[in-house]
Every structure is written in C-alpha cells, then in structure tokens.
C-alpha cells in the first residue's frame, strides 16, 4: 500500500479473501470469528497498515480510539494479568491500548497526561495510585479515568480492584484459627490506600476475636522485599516478638521469609507468614506462601468496561467496584510453637 493512499477495510477484506463484515467482527469481536479466519485478517491488516491508518484518521477527526494505561512498574507481577483483562475488553469494543511506563517517576507521569491535550488518547487507566503533582495545569478537567490495583490517593476518580479489607480479614482469621494471637502487620502506609485498607481488615479480624491491637506490632513498609526484611529486623530489635507475620503483599512476605531463614528459623514451625496478591512466585517459595489472590484479569476487564461506559456517558464518575478475593492456603502457616502464644 502507498503511504499516500490510506488502506481501507475493503483492502483488508480483499487480501484476506473474506467479507467486510467478517473483517469488522475480527477486529471488534474476535471471539466470534474462527481462529484461522482471524489469523488471515490480522495478516492482511499487517500488510496493509490498516490499523495505523484508522488511528491516524481518528486523530484527524479530533478523537481517539486509544486508551492510555499508566503504570509505575511494568515488571510488577500483578501488571501483566490485569493488562490482559484491560486489553481484551478494549479490543472487543474497537479500542487499542497504549502503555505509559513511569518507572516511579512523577515527571514521566505528567508527560503522559499531556497526551490528552493532543487527542492521542480517549481515556486513562491509572495503576500508580496517585496523579502526578501539577496535573491540574496540564488539563483543566481530567479525561475519563479509572484507577486499578491501587485507589487513587488524590484523584477522586473511579476505582476497580480487590476488596482489600475482606482479603486481609480472611488472612488474619486463618492465623487466629491456627491459634495465633500475636500477629504482626507488615506494610502499613499513609499514602498507599490499598495498604491502609489491608491494615483495617487486620484490625477488624483482631477485634472480632477479642484480641487487643498492639500498635508495636504494626510496621510500616513500602511493599518491597527489602522493606519486609527491614521491618523484620526492627521487630527483632525488641524483646516482644509475634508468632505470625501478616504481610501487605507477597514481596513483603518474601522479605520477611528470607530474613527469618537468615536467622535460622523454620517456617511455619517457628513463625507463620501470609502474603497478599498471589503473584506467580508465591507457589514456588520455600515453603509455598499462603496468600490472598487478587482476580487480576477480572479487575482489568471490569476497569476497561467501566471506562468505556464513562466514555459513552453511561456511568457515574464516583464508582468503586471491589471484587472478592480468595484465600490460597499453602504451607507457610501452622500453629504457634508451644509456649510462644500466651
């Protein structure tokens, strides 16, 4: 195809040897088209450059069929599964996905928001949990936006994620049922709203069991392996140790586990450990990690569906959709050692 002559859907249909209606279905409702036909259409699209030209036309008309996904760390094991749900739902409705990787740099986040002033994206999916400082100067009114994985701290925008309070409650209830009464919470945060919600679930579980909250057992954390190790070392500097560690995520649990092993302790014989997220590595840890599973692909699907409803003026802008978590019981939890629980 010549660059001066934009490809049309008719060009794609001719090369793929299918009808125009089939091309349209293959693009917008791929699940309704046979795999072999879908492959032919995709090859024809690649040959003609039809998708890129369609995007260019939408930009000239002053609107876009692209959704910008801004994430702080695309290496996060939670990201890829949520992205699958986002992208499948977007493609089913004729939208594409652009990924903006901030690498935890607020300035990069601000640069990605400038997309909206040039109509390069129709809406925003935000993984970062915070809108970059200065975003008000970039766009007078934020485009249709949805937060996922982490509620947006300063944005007041809709959110789709797991029910953090319920998930944490399931983990602490398990530890209490095993006989633990001295349970540390590792990973409290004043800026990560999801972590704060998990602490609330922890506190609710203790209260329901009649266990007084010991503030010395609530440790700050940043959700990293090193943060888990540091919190553990701080606890060991005191005489008052827990028998179980309820960690705000699986990375923190890994840090706690490594720190305990370095001190010569066995899990769960000496201490029990739980995580949150159920990242793929959780089942390969030694021992395998008892944790709370987030329905990540479903979160992505619901978030994109909500954003598309907002783009069609069919959804309220203050919505919060919380999906139910599952407790995944593996080998890192057992009863407290004799004499250490009272």
From TrEMBL:
InterPro entries linked: HTH_LacI, LacI/GalR-like_sensor, Lambda_DNA-bd_dom_sf, Peripla_BP_I
HTH lacI-type domain: residues covered: 7-61
Ranges in a coiled coil: none
MF term (GO), any: DNA-binding transcription factor activity
Superkingdom as given in the UniProt entry: Bacteria
Pfam families: LacI, Peripla_BP_3
Keyword list, A-Z: DNA-binding, Plasmid, Repressor, Transcription, Transcription regulation
Name of the protein: Probable transcriptional regulator protein, LacI family
Native organism: Sinorhizobium fredii (strain NBRC 101917 / NGR234)
């Amino acid at each position: 195809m010549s660059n001066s002559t934009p490809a049309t859907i008719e060009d794609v249909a001719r090369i793929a040897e299918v009808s125009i209606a089939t091309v349209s279905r293959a693009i917008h409702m791929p699940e309704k088209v046979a795999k072999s036909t879908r492959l032919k259409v995709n090859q024809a699209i690649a040959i003609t450059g039809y998708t890129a030209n369609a995007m260019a036309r939408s930009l000239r008309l002053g609107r876009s069929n692209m959704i910008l996904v801004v994430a702080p760390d695309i290496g996060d094991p939670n990201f890829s599964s949520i992205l699958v749900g986002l992208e499948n739902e977007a493609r089913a409705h004729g939208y594409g996905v652009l990924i903006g990787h901030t690498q935890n740099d607020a300035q990069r986040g601000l640069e990605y928001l400038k997309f909206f002033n040039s109509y390069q994206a129709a809406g925003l999916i935000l993984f970062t949990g915070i809108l970059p400082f200065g975003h008000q100067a970039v766009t007078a009114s934020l485009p249709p936006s949805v937060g996922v994985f982490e509620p947006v701290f300063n944005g007041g925008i809709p959110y789709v994620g797991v029910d953090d309070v319920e998930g944490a409650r399931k983990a602490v209830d398990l530890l209490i049922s095993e006989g633990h009464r001295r349970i540390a919470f590792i990973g409290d945060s004043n800026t990560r709203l999801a972590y704060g919600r998990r602490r609330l679930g922890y506190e609710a579980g203790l209260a329901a069991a009649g266990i007084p909250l010991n503030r010395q057992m609530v440790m700050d954390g940043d959700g990293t392996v090193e943060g888990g190790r540091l919190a553990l070392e701080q606890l060991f500097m005191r005489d008052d140790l827990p028998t179980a560690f309820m960690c705000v995520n699986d990375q923190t649990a890994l840090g706690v586990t490594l720190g305990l092993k370095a001190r010569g302790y066995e899990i769960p014989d000496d201490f029990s450990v739980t995580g949150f997220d159920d990242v793929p590595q959780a089942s390969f840890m030694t021992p395998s990690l008892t944790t709370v599973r987030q329905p990540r692909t479903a979160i992505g699907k619901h978030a994109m569906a909500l954003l598309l409803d907002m783009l069609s003026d069919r959804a309220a802008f203050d919505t919060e959709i919380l999906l139910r978590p599952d407790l995944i019981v593996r080998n890192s939890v057992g009863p407290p050692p004799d004499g250490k629980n009272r």
